[in-house]
Amino acid sequence: MERVISVNMHGIVEVLIYGNSSFEVSVKLLNFLLWVYTKKLMIQQCLSTFDKMIRNGLLPDVKNCNRILRILRDKDLVGKAREVYKKMGEFGIKPTIVTYNTLLDLYCKEGEVQQALDLLLEMQRQWVCSE
């Protein structure tokens, strides 16, 4: 008979980041947990893990940031999406076309036309400067 144990997923993040674990915590492992949270639409856990990662110098990859932005868009959480996008910039996580498209969709969906226009200008500046 196979033994099954119940694990509090968010407790794992606490142990991995703050615990005195005897193994090295990798960004890949935390990115995997972020992926699980986004797939299960666990918004609070996504945001909490994202915040803990960046506060501890463990930067999530842009794909997971985009996944977080998409679930925030789908739940009409504009303010939270803005916060995630701002933190991405503060910690050097470069937005992709997917990032911009998700935010543009959210801003237009919410009637925030000026925000969408400002984001378009930011996109133009980024691509002009990167070429």
UniProtKB/TrEMBL annotation:
Swiss-Prot/TrEMBL keywords: Repeat
Keyword Repeat (UniProt): yes
Family annotation (InterPro entries): PPR_rpt (IPR002885), TPR-like_helical_dom_sf (IPR011990)
Residue spans of the PPR repeats: 61-95, 96-130
Family statement: Belongs to the PPR family. P subfamily.
Protein's name according to its UniProt entry: Pentatricopeptide repeat-containing protein
Organism: Liquidambar formosana
Lineage: Eukaryota, Viridiplantae, Streptophyta, Embryophyta, Tracheophyta
